[in-house]
Design a protein that fits this description.
The chain is an all-alpha fold and 123 residues long. It has six helices and no strands. This is TetR family transcriptional regulator.
Length: 123
């Protein structure tokens, strides 16, 4: 059983408009250096206690995830690159944070957003 049984989603309007627009913009701004960083990552794992949230996001927010994935594909032009899995995992975790908002403890929010933020800052 999840330690966060009362997950609730943030406002649908806020999530779908503001947050998705920001994530799509950020995807388009990923630096080239992020590819080198991603190539050095062997695997990305969702913490076990957050797997139920990941499953729900994949099922209930597939369209939003695909929008961010498309933006990443357009940015890098290599949708089948081996390193694209790192970008997709980072995007998925960033969406997870936004779906449930402040219900997640600060440490979990930071952990889930960290890879996306690190890729954005890659030099």
């Amino acid at each position: 059983m999840s330690p966060y049984p009362k997950w609730r989603e943030t406002s649908a309007t806020r999530f779908s408009v503001d947050v998705m627009a920001n994530l799509i913009i950020e995807a388009g701004q990923m630096p080239d250096a992020a590819i080198r960083f991603a190539q050095g990552i062997g695997q990305v794992w969702t913490p076990e206690h957050l797997v139920p949230l990941r499953t729900r996001v994949r099922q209930q927010h597939a369209g939003q995830l695909r929008s961010v994935f498309r933006a990443l594909d357009q940015r890098f032009g290599e949708p089948n690159g081996q390193w694209m899995g790192v970008f997709r995992a980072a995007a998925e975790m960033a969406v997870m944070v936004e779906v449930v908002g402040d219900v997640l403890p600060a440490g979990d929010r930071q952990l889930l957003r960290n890879l996306w933020a690190t890729l954005l800052r890659a030099t």
